[in-house]
Structures are given as C-alpha cells and as structure tokens.
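LAB NOTEBOOK - FOLDING QUEUE
OPERATOR: T.R.
BATCH SIZE: 2
PURPOSE: Compare the predicted structure-token outputs for two unrelated chains run back to back under identical settings.
PRIORITY: normal
REVIEWER: second-year student, initials M.K.

ITEM 1
FIELD SEQUENCE / FIELD STRUCTURE:
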Amino acid sequence: NSSESHNCAKSILTSDRLQIVVTLSEFFNETWEAANCANCLKNNSEGLSNSTEEFLDLFNKSLTCFEHNLQGQAIDLSPNNYTEVCKNCNETYTKLNDLYNHLQRMNRRGGESAHSAHLCIDVEDAMNITRKLWSRTFNCSLPCSDTVPVIAVSSFILFLPIVFYLSSFLHSKQKKRILILPKRIQSNANLVNIQEKYS
C-alpha cells in the first residue's frame, strides 16, 4: 500500500525486538565504507574500474611468477636463497609496485571512482601480500632510486656549518690591538720617586 509505505517499512524492519534487518543493514554498510569498496568500482558502480582490473591482473601475474620460479626448486633452495625468483620476477613486481603507487596518488586526487582517501581493501591487501612475499619470504629488494639525492642533500647539510664558520672567519675584519703610547709628560708619581732617590 503506497499510502502507508513508511509505516509498512517501519513495521517490517523494526517489528522484532533485535531489529535484525536494520542491524545487518548497518553492519554491511559500515563494512563497505570501512573497506573503501567504492574505490575499486566505476562511478556508477556497474563493475570494477579499469585501474583495479589492471592491478588485479598484474597481481595474479606476480603470484604466478613466484609460483612458477619456485616449482620443483623448493627442496633445493635454502630459506634465504631465492635469487631465481628475485631475478625472474623483478620486472613484474616492479610494474605492480609502480601501478600501486600510481593508484594511491591518483586516488588522493579522486580518480576513477570519484572517492578520495584510501584504496579499496582488496587492492591494499593484495599489495601487502605481495610485498611480504617479495621482501620477507624471498629476501628480494628493489634498488632505491632516491639514494643519490639523499646522499647529496645529507652531504650539503653536513658541510653547512663548516662553510658558515669558514666564511665568517674570512669575511670578518680581524681587529688588531694597537697600543697607543701617551704623548704627555710622565705622571707626578714618577717625579716624586726620582726626587726621593736623590734626597
């Protein structure tokens, strides 16, 4: 009955003492928002966004690469010797890591999903799993591209006090103390001493 739709909804949703329908609805809505699920979807929520599909595709390729390079070698490898995995999967992992960083930057500006803040929980969990496998399990590492600028800035900051004191020393005028001899007659006390000697 359209004329009593509000009362009808109220009687159906809140008829029981626990209000189970309302409680479940609130739980699912809060979980959806806390997990930022909308950030993985297109604006109209018809499906996964292109960037999310691209990320999940690269994620699956990375896991397949890890698995493929470990197959048949797991018995031979010591716990810290996964050089084949690091060497063969480096390109795939680097692409995945770069895409994740790009998605984070894009998401902060309100990307495809038009929602800001964090990426959806599926993407974040997938990247966390991959990073743990890459760094902790396989002991692989990516070369840090920021090493040269960090060393340059650190060196500059370390040399600043030296430059400051050196320039301060060179540019300040060294004042030498010049003793000016008095051009007056000796004091009376000296004359009295001379007179006492002769008397």
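ITEM 2
FIELD SEQUENCE / FIELD STRUCTURE:
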Amino acid sequence: AGSGTYTRHGFIFSSLAGCLEKRSEDSGLPVLSVVRDTESQLLPSVGAVVTCKVCGINSRFAKVHILYVGSTPLKSTFRGTIRREDIRATEKDKVEVYKSFRPGDIVLAKVISLGDAQSNYLLSTAENELGVVVAHSEAGVQMVPVSWCEMQCPQTHSKDFRKVARVQPQFLQT
C-alpha cells in the first residue's frame, strides 16, 4: 500500500478520492497509491470577490459568468445573477440595470449567496470597489471611467452609464 491507501484484512483500500497509481518497487512488488488532482476545483464562497463577464441583462437583473475567484482563474465558469437591488448601496429603487451593465462588461462583484435550484450565485456590486472594470464602446474600444457612474470612449468621446468600480491596486494586473 502506498500513499492515499491503507490495508485491512490483507486488502488495500483507498483513503481518499482520486486516481489509482501503480508502480513497481525494487523488490518487484507493485505499490498502489491513490493521488488527488493537484488542481482541485476552487468554488466561489460567500464573501469572495469574483471577476465575472456580463452575458445578459433585463430590467430586474444582470446574468453573468464567474471567471475568477480573487485572482485565481476557474476551470469552469459558474453562472451568477446581480439583482437590481444589489447593484448599488444607495438609491436602490432608482437603479436601472441597463445604466449599470452591458453584455460583455467585466465586473468585480462579491458573492452574497450560493443561490437557488438553478445553481446561480447571487452577487452584489453595492460597494465603491465593486462594479464594471472593463467595458467596450460601440466602436469596440476599451472605455475609460470618467465618474462613478459613467465611462467614455477615448475614440468617439461618447459617454455611457455604468456602475463603475473604484479599482483597488491589488486587483490591477501589471
């Protein structure tokens, strides 16, 4: 019996979930080990800051795909929802989803709940540090933030409403 296994009554049992590895030792006897996938899947947890991409919006919420937890990329994307009332901390009744997000935007959000039967994570951008970090204009150019609620295209100078994140230095990639 090798690592990840134990013996009982002359049989070898696995002590963890993983893949069976069989190798020969100097004595000629095979050694059976069970090894885990070293990159176990990271899951978004309540309170975690996640990076996501907006895939659809309507008047009540924005649908997103979660791509990163902190700075760790996920092996597979998870679906999330940012409800209208979770977009801003103040004046929640005046928030309009289409003035906060657009499909294709990259957003920093915080996980507030693990969701429901549809396996959607509920997310919030109701902090100054959370919101849109990357957006593209109609011309396909990356927009620059001009205030907490507007971004501007450097090429056409047109402005669009967004819930802009005040990005903290630790979230900036160099």
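REVIEWER COMMENT (ITEM 2): The mean pLDDT is 85.
FOLLOW-UP: none requested
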